[in-house]
Amino acid sequence: MSMSEPDTLSTAEAAYTQRLITSERSGLKRLLPTQAPYHWNLRSLGLGGIRVLDIGCGIGRNLAVCGAGSVGVDHNPSSVAAARARGLVAFTADELIGRGGVGRFDALLCAHVLEHLTETDGTALLASYLPMVRPGGLVVLITPQEAGFASDPTHIRFVDADALRAIASRAGLEELHNYSFPLPRRTGRVFRYNEFVYAGTVPGVG
How confident is the model at residue 133, as a pLDDT? Predict the structure, then answer.
């Protein structure tokens, strides 16, 4: 992320990367494939077989299930290094400059990022990367519901289904889906891993 962010002092540091790694290995996650439903959801949207630009890729949890030629970008150098250590292709925003091109990717994924940003910065972030997605390409936006939002002190703005639709509309996207996953919407108040999922397309024909 290349613009000013209110949570930069936490999410851009090595300690935040370590927190992501620790969380990935804690509790039931050590014994059960808890990410499997979320990876299934990404594949069901089509991200498993196409070139995806994963904005805010972190340590590569979602990037790992995207198609060949996919690239992650994150403002935390430690997270980028962790993703690379997993054999993934990831860059900081500055490193990505000059490596991408207009229409290079088939899709854009922005998962659990917008809740870390102000409305203005979130809109600007999306606008800055959309030119790298081909016309007709897919855009997937994912944010946590109430329990998930409350679980992380670096979250600064609750972005629900209507807010995702508004962000996408300002970006000129054409909506395909807007739903709650993996459980019904009301569950998000107690189940921290329930998500808002928006999918739309970039105008034009690829």
Answer: 96
Q: Which domains, and CATH codes, for the chain? A: 8-201 (3.40.50.150)
* Interatomic CA distance for residues 47 and 51, integer angstroms: 8
Torsion 180-188-72-70 (CA) sign: negative
Q: What is the DSSP letter of 173?
A: -
Which residues are CB-neighbours of 57 under 8 A, at least 6 positions away? 63, 72, 73, 74, 79, 80, 83, 88, 90
DSSP, residue by residue, 137-165: EEEEEEEE-HHHHHT-TT------HHHHH
Spans of the chain, pLDDT less than 70: 1-9, 27-32, 100, 206
